[in-house]
Amino acid sequence: MKTSLLRAAVVALGVALGGSAHAETIVLKAGHSANPDEPYHIGLTEFARIVKERTNGRVEVQIFPNNQLGNEKEMIEGLLLGTLDITVPSNGVVTNFVPQLGIFDLPFLFRDRAHMYKVMDGPVGQTLDKAMQAKGFRLLGFYEAGIRHIMTRSKPINSYADLQGLKIRTMGVPAHVASFNAFGANATPLAYSELYGALQSGVVDGAEAANTNYNSKKFYEVAPHWAQIGWTALVADLIMSEQRYQSLPADVQAILSEAGLASAAAERAAYEKSDNSLLGDLKEKGVKVTHPDPKPFREASKAVYDAFVKTEQDRALLDAILATE
Predict the structure, then answer these.
(1) Of 205, 227, 295, 314, which is least packed with CB atoms within 10 Å of its CB?
(2) 2-323: CATH superfamily
(3) Is 27 helix (H, G, I), strand (E, B) or coil?
(4) Is the pLDDT of residue 266 over 50?
C-alpha cells in the first residue's frame, strides 16, 4: 500500500511539474506577408532564434508567412485584439493607426540605403517609436522592404513620358497613390494578393515593387518590363502590442527588444544583398530592364510633399530626415 501511494505521489508530482513547466512556456505568434525565402522571413527567423536562445527555450516564436494570419492591416488589428503577437507590415499600412509614420512614405525621401538606416536608427526613428507607443504598439525594430521600381506588362518605361496614363497598382497608401498620380499615371490601389492576376488579365498596366519581391512572386512572368527608378525605399515596422509587451516579464521584454534590433540588421542585410544581386538573374530570365531619368519624377514629387507635409511636426521630421548625414 505504501509503495502504491508513493508511486501515485511521484506521478502526481511529475504531472504538476510538467504542467508548471508547460505553463511557463511563452508562445508568441508572428505573421507577415512575404514568402519564406524573402528577407522578412529571414529577419523573423533570426528573431525567433535569438529569443529562444537567450530565454533558454522559455519563449517560442512561431512564424506564419504569406498572409496566413490575414493581410497586413488585419494582422495589425490582430495585435490590438490579442489574436496575434508580432507582425512586420509595410510602413504605409501602419499609418492607418499611427499617422506620423506617413513621413516615411514620401517619394525620393532617402538618398540611399545608408541614409535610410541612419534615419530609422536615429532621433527620427526614436520620435516615431514614441508615436507608436502612444497608439498601443511596441516597435521592436525597423525592417525595410526594398528600393522600389516600376514593372509594366507591355510597354517599357524608358522615360517619364512613357508612364503617362498607365494604370499602376499601388498599395492603398495615400502618399503612394498621390505619387503615381503626380507622375502622370493612374494610380490603382489593389490588394497585393490580387496583383499577379490583375497584371495577367490587364486590369492594371503595371505596378511598383523591389527587385526581391518582383522576382520572388514571379511578377516578371506577366510584367516583363522593369524600370529601375528607385522612386522610394520602403520602410517596414516590426511591431507588437504594447499591452502584450508590458504583460511579459522584464527580462523577456529586454530580450525581445534586443532580438528585434539584431533581426532588423539581419533583415536589412538580406534585402540589400537580394536587391543588388537579382538584376542580373532577372535579365537572364528575359526581363527587359530600363533606366529612365529620375529628374522629372523627382520634380513631380514636389507636389506630393506640398500635400502631405502640412504641420510643424511634419516639417520638423522632414527637416531632420534631410539633415541626417
Answers:
(1) 295
(2) Bacterial extracellular solute-binding protein, family 7 (3.40.190.170)
(3) strand
(4) yes
Place of cell 522584464: 250
| Domain coordinates in residue numbering, the chain | 2-323
Of 290, 33, 271, 11, nearest to 149 by C-alpha is 290
pLDDT range class, residue 18, cuts 50, 70, 90:
very low
pLDDT score at 19: 37
- Cα angle 217, 222, 226; round to 5: 80
- Secondary structure E strands in 211-278: 225-241
Place 210 in a pLDDT band, splitting at 50, 70 and 90: very high
The phi and psi torsions of 292 (rounded to 5 degrees) equal -65, 150
pLDDT digits (tens, 9 = 90+) for 178-207: 999 999 999 999 988 899 999 999 999 999
| Bridge partner list, 235 | 144
Residue 235 predicted with pLDDT over 80: yes
Separation CA 53–CA 153 (nearest Å): 46
DSSP characters over 132-187: HHHTTEEEEEEEEEEEEEEEESSS---SGGGGTT-EEEE-S-HHHHHHHHHTTSEE
Average pLDDT, the chain: 92
Burial 70-80 (b: 16+ CB within 10 A, else e): bbbebbbbbbb
pLDDT tens track for 120-140: 999 999 999 999 999 999 999
Cα 155-194-291 angle, rounded to 5 deg: 30
